[in-house]
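Sequence in, structure out. Go.
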Amino acid sequence: MKKAIACVVLAAGQGTRMRSTIPKVLHKLNGIPMIHYVLRAVSGLGPERVIVVAGRDNERVLREALKTENVQFALQKTPLGTAHALMSAGKALRGFQGDVLVLNGDTPLVSTMTLRKFITRHRRARKSLSLLSFIAGDPSGYGRILRDRSGTPIGIREEKDATEEERTIEEVNSGIYLFNPRTLTLLKKIGLNSKKGEYYLTDILEIASQKGLGCGVCCSGDEWEFLGINTTDELLRAQRILREKTVRYWLERDVSFMDETAVYIHPDVVIGEGTHIYPNVYLEGGTSIGSGCVIYPDVRITDSTVGDGVTIKDSSVIESAEIQGNTI
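Output:
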């Protein structure tokens, strides 16, 4: 992508529905905090800047958790909504003249490919503002995309404010936006929502449309990519989706499983072709498994290297080890 891009990850939410002392975006999927998946997705875009917006309650913990990441931090001092959170990144964006991608830190399943397609469509259409939408099988809880009779997007209606007719709309907001610098100045035009006492980023589409700026809504991606994690049930659902996706990836690379639902493979693990894995196996951290291996049930391997043709017996626990090839 020739034009510069900055990415703002909104991560100030308190996550009260998770009922946990751990900040929501640091809850783990396949052994990795969910915000790391978001950062990996945006890093594939080659951004000039990545800004994480934290809140007072989670800033210290987030800074520690992301200390090895190439990110800047912005602080939302008071939790006054998503538009206010984005405005909190203003200082970190100062002087930047490219496009600004905004997404939430609690949507860990979104892919680099989907984001790249979104940016490409936005630039080809020469829009001032674009948002990414999708068709929801069950749109309950999502903001509905409003269009006029010609199909032009004119606004987003949150469910609690929607009419019965608007609630039948299946195209919904993913929470992913793309701004040019001029459109970002319109954030100051967003008014306080009297019901919630917050400034909603969703209001930006209507404001930009009324100003006559070119606004686009790109309907793209698979619904599961935009799953936002707000509850432990949603965390478990995301875990299942990610495990299925990971298993499918390795099946396509000639790795076989006795039970595809009972293996747990971290995203940085590498497995050689022809390896067969039995149930209740955990492959964690930066583990590398060679080709033609057999891993029997109830095994945990963490940050280890296993050579070609190795057989790992039942109930083995292997940590930070190197096992030569053709070993039992």
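Check: The mean pLDDT is 94. The two ends are 49 Å apart (CA to CA).
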